[in-house]
Design a protein that fits this description.
The structure is a homodimer of 327-residue chains.
Chain A: H1 10-13, H2 15-23, E1 32-34, E2 41-44, E3 49-58, H3 70-86, E4 91-101, H4 107-122, E5 127-135, E6 140-148, E7 165-169, H5 174-184, H6 190-197, H7 205-211, E8 216-219, H8 224-235, E9 238-241, H9 247-260, H10 264-270, E10 277-281, E11 290-296, E12 301-304, E13 307-308
Parallel strand pairs in A: 4-5, 9-12
Antiparallel strand pairs in A: 1-2, 3-6, 4-6, 7-10, 7-11, 8-10, 9-11, 12-13
Helix pairs in contact in A: 2-4, 3-4, 5-6, 5-9, 5-10, 9-10
Family (chains A, B): Belongs to the thiamine-monophosphate kinase family.
Enzyme class (chains A, B): transferase
Pfam families (chains A, B): AIRS, AIRS_C
Chain lengths: 327, 327
């Protein structure tokens, strides 16, 4: 029985048919020597090095298909991987994608997922160069990103020095606010709810930070305090965050925080998945960055206004319910 | 309640604790500038290009934990990705791994999975440079491999020319035989059963083929006829396979084929997952390759002894039960 093109399933279209559909008529990228369709892609790496990172998103854990459209899921998967590359001071150039889904998944949803990936990647001139499409009881999206350092040294987590300024670019707490709003069934504050579904990392700022001499950098995927702790421990330094410097961030969230009944500072300090960038600078900050603290002597730990932070610190996989994770 | 180190679960060890365990004390690799532990790894790419490919393995679909040990699964995931790089005429240098598993998974199983990946990668001098560890209702292993072309042109599927010889290196039908033996509960012929769990691609032969002037190449992941069809269609040529040339391959499988009650040729022509390499050569074959047919004029199709092959051709995801797929 043949159904219309618009409501065919993955099983009806088939693996190779589906791959043909989602790779057809995509824009060419100057960074790609061999695109999808062979045993491997070949990507230019004029720098002589390539940065590489991977993230896996599991339905019910990292996204919910009753909250997110497939297009949102595609954008999120690309955005959060690109943010890891930004956090090295590099620029994302190419992605490969593993996608698992049930055989009865509408092919149109797979089209939308791929379109979301391409549209997010197009924001910084990157391409999807390959992938794997398999049967799975639930959706799994595994994205690997390649990045270009353009001759610069990678900005690691381990280089922060006492006396440097800690600065951030991008939003803090938007995703956590959005998650709480979705969870509470509050349909106002659409910007936060949308940011929970599709983070918007500050593309280009990783490179700007590297060019400005950033000593250490990370993207805020687990939460500001949790991610700064990674930097503090890797660098063997203390990082002291000023809540006064985060007032403006808190004010942006105030209405939503009151609607949900929480302290906005909890979202700013503990909320992950916005993929803001936070870095240590020994000198002047690049445009678009705001100072939120400074580096002090070790041991490796994070202080808030000079004291240990005892609130919610951030996400870990395999966490227990109530830790802010989905499902 | 604290249980012994040996029977702790992923939830008890935690994401970061587990990542620490599986990345500790691994061998250094000359190809890696920045290893695991930062936002991204950095891999050397002196060639100025990098080959990249990805595969996703889903429990119950691509492996069964009642047949395979976690160590087997790790080796298989790395081997099949490395084979894709071999099929470009390149050498695998580095891997990143996404792994999803239930929170109650024994941490020792994750250790074994990682050990399997490292031991397989060590066979060709590559390293695991990064990954992501997440909660998932069942095991999902997503591996991305980077490869080095060392200045050579990539060997694509599209370059086969009429008159060239088709040759293969590596085993044909071992994995299919093993699958049938497992499925039938026959515990003899352990070599085939083990090859189904852990394929052994002919590492180094991809590069040897490229250096010998291979015009087109692919690894046998879906089945010999199915994969040659990809080459035939991409190249716009016919490929004529000789069953007489495959006699030796069939003889190796004869005992197992009789035990299961099938024609060994079905496994040789249709069985995938051995990750043998098959290529078109205009001139002499490199050492270790055996001729199995030749390239004829188009249209793009595969012939067996000059006639269309009507038997089982190979694997596709989302296939129906009975197509040789698991689950």
């Amino acid at each position: 029985m043949d159904s219309g093109e618009s409501d065919r399933t993955l099983a009806e279209v088939g693996e190779f048919g589906m791959i043909g559909r989602i790779t057809r008529a995509r824009p060419e990228s100057a960074g790609v020597a061999v695109g999808p369709g062979d045993d491997a892609a070949v990507v230019w790496a004029a720098d002589g090095r390539v940065a590489v990172s991977t993230d896996m998103l599991v339905e019910g854990r990292h996204f919910r298909l009753d909250w997110s459209t497939p297009h949102d899921v595609g954008r999120k998967a690309v955005a959060q991987n690109a943010a890891d590359i930004e956090a090295m001071g590099a620029t994302a150039t190419a992605f490969v994608v593993g996608f698992g889904a049930p055989a009865d998944t509408p092919a149109a949803q797979v089209d939308a997922l791929a379109d979301g990936m391409w549209s997010e990647a197009a924001r910084f001139g990157a391409a999807i160069v390959g992938g794997d499409l398999v049967a799975s009881p639930h959706w799994v999206v595994s994205v690997t990103v390649l990045g270009d350092l353009a001759g610069r040294a990678p900005v690691l987590r381990s280089g922060a020095q006492p006396g440097s300024r800690i600065a951030v670019t991008g939003q803090l707490g938007y995703s956590a606010a959005g998650y709480a709003l979705w969870h509470s069934g509050i349909d106002r504050f659409s910007e936060f709810r949308q940011r929970h579904l599709v983070p918007q990392p500050p593309y280009g700022q990783g490179r700007a930070a590297a060019e400005a001499g950033a000593q250490a950098m990370i993207d805020v995927s687990d939460g500001l305090v949790a991610d700064l702790r990674h930097v503090a421990e890797a660098s063997g330094v203390g990082i002291d965050v000023s809540t006064e410097a985060l007032d403006a961030d808190c004010r942006l969230l105030l209405g939503a925080a009151q609607a949900v009944g929480v302290d906005a500072l909890t979202w700013v300090l503990g909320g992950g998945e916005d993929h803001a960038l936070v870095a240590a600078f020994p000198g002047p900050l690049p445009a678009g960055w705001r100072e939120i603290g400074h580096v002090v002597d070790g041991p490796g730990r994070v202080l808030v206004d000079g004291a240990e932070w005892r609130g919610y610190a951030g996400w870990q996989s395999f966490g227990t319910p109530g830790d802010g994770s989905l499902g």
